[in-house]
Amino acid sequence: MNNAQRTAQALADIVELVAPGSEPIRHRLAEAVAGLQFAHSWETAGALLDAMYDVDADLSEAGMIYCDWRSEPSEIRDSLVEIPSCPPTLNWEWLDQFDEDEWEPEEIESFLWLLAARCRELGTALIILDVESDGYGLGFVAADRVDRIVELARIATCDLRVVYPEIPTLVV
Question: Is the pTM of this model over 0.85?
């Protein structure tokens, strides 16, 4: 298997961990990787985001959401709760501590750490996909899959990070 094939397979495995059995996402990934040489990490991340998030599709068919650098906590929450991998018992009451009238995009890291802590209580990890632009992908993966998704991201040379206590990988 050559590097491009290993990368494509690692991306397919990531998709299966984040959105198991999702035919729309598998199909979008096949389209996104067709002809790519994966010479740059942004190509790999872009292909993964294109597969996991289709701006024209319903979020119920997504594995991630896309957040702009200006996205506010309630906007992020409203999108995250629509994706199938969002823990159904995730409590969002803590979100009130972020006053959106005074929200500064620089506060995103504190928001994400608090979200990750709530996810951990439910056996889920928050993941961030850096696409080297003014935004990023956000999604969830089962906590028992964290080591595997980190390894697959390494193989794919994809800047997919896990926001999970005890794993120092958060850089937004």
Answer: yes
